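Q: Protein A?
A:
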Amino acid sequence: MTFAPEQFALVREHACRTETEALRRALARSFGDPAELPEGVTPRVLFEMGRLNKVGLFLAPRPADLPADWSAMAPQLETMRLQTAARNGHSLRTSLEVARLMQEAGIAHVQFKGPLQQIALYGGPCWKPTGDVDLLVAEADLATAAAALRAAGYVAQEAELADWWTRHLGEQHFRRPEGGPVVDLHHRLQQPGAPRPRHTADFLTRATDMSYAGQRVPMVSGPDRCLVAAIGVVKAFVAQEPCAGHLCDLRASLDRLSPDEARALPGIAAAQGLSETLALASHGVDTLFEGLSPRPYAQGSNPLGALPAPDLRRMLVAPWQPDLDWPRRSRILWALSGRHPLRFARETLAAKSSEAHRLWLKGLIRSGLIARREGKAA
């Protein structure tokens, strides 16, 4: 999710410290942790923080459950609940359709995130708003998967930037002409600026079937679900975007690992080159729920070292605050690369190459050499 600067206009007018504490306590309560909700919050600021972090519906199971001084949020929460149910219902139907299309085409695939994952993690499909269906296939199957989507009436989006999306970000976007959810067709995970998994095919090999409405849908395995959530946390952290939703997904994914899966997770992360990614993200979970959850979640030492917990918490939940002393992106990438010079150099080159390609294409668009259009990519 990419944020426009104007989306932070309201929260930038406030210190957000009380609201940050209120948000994390509400999230802890949603996981069953005992946590008293603080008083003195500004309801519209708290709601906006929840919305930006994609956890607005975690603030209260029902609007009637809100504390008295939070009750001004009730109409907004009810509107969000209805809108999320409509959007996620459409995404759920698209998820089932896409799984059927891939199965009919004989393409190995898995889905991740989205309403089906919410069912697995939280017991229902409408906890977090989603307008995408995330689908992973092997790079060798990318053209065949895209053809299957086109044959079903989906059209490739952002045609003028399609080469950049596919080459550098490892994904293509498809949507029906009449609108509806976007199908994100991935052949890689993670974006330049942070290490990507070394063996994407392993996510397909470890797929686990989920049954819904009488249909089988391949989903990422429990350990891989943890890695995908950790990737989301780190991606948002690097981009300085709010990510409590990803942190909740990681906590819920870790909670639902079987004993065998929990023992296997560190080895799987190491094989994918994601030990540091998982460690930083899981420290984010510990930091978010510090003092509220009885269970430690950290998977290894924090690769960024002694970053104060209150600062890290604000970076993860309220990154728009101007007084935050952010680590340089090069320091973050150095840490996530395991402090291996060759890997760091490779990841740095990938990030710079991606940005140069994007800016070059944007320049061509501004000059009119590439037409700005929606439609089928070449």
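Q: Protein B?
A:
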Amino acid sequence: MVFAAALTDPGRKRALNEDAVNQLVTSYGGIFIVADGMGGHRTGEIASQMAVSQIVEVLKRSEPSPQGLLEAYEAANEAIYLAGQKPESRGMGTTCTALWLDLPYALIAHVGDSRAYLLRDGELLQLTQDHSWVADRVRQGLLTEDEARNHRWRNVITNALGSFPNARVDLVGLKVRPGDVFLLCSDGLSGVLEDKVLAEMILTNPPEPAVAKLIKLANDWGGPDNISAVVVTIGSQVAESPKPYALPLDANNGQPVHLQSGTDPEVLTTQIAEPEKKPTFWQRWGSVILLLLWFGLLGFVLFNQLGSGATP
């Protein structure tokens, strides 16, 4: 059983809402997305809407799997990138965080600084890592979380759909537990409200009032950016269902695991390893040849020494 709500708002300081959201509950779980567009004029709004519509359409036609989620992001990236080649659309792109519930699994794909959170047993866990300049500096130990929150470059994104010919996507997988609550949001929410406030709102409210209260609180705190939130609550029972794919062991135990993108879906189920390569001639015989040369050189030196020491 899945209960969900999605809401977006332009905020107090922006005339145009460049965010886009979507929620679609299905028989197997559902599809939930938040996107935050960027670019001049109306291109950010177009980019976020393109991402959401493209991904939903691909996922609706696909069997749930990590590879299917990647392919949906790749299709959206290609469409936005091509649209951004027009002179009037230069610089268009969008963040995008999607939750594909395939109960009892949750698959999450992520690009940019929109976020996915998991509330479990009263504890809020950020599942995604921001692709931003300040987040990189925090991970390097050069900025604190508080410094990053107020830094003048906090809105500088290092990865977005449509910015590059090929999508660079983070994947997260985990096994869902009864009572889990997922929050997807744009930085207009996470950049204004602290994690403890986010946790309290989604812990004490069903999805629909939760998203409304979250957006109201962000606006009460100034609403400096567009604000979007999607809350997805898992019911008291989660049916076990065999899947044609598997997740790493930790994910099956309910612990989030970051999967590596750009790989064969079968490889996603295990620790990523370098593909086996046939050894070259020098890799196979190089050490033998060097050893023979060394013995040859040693023999040559000894022969000369013996020859020079002989009595005529």
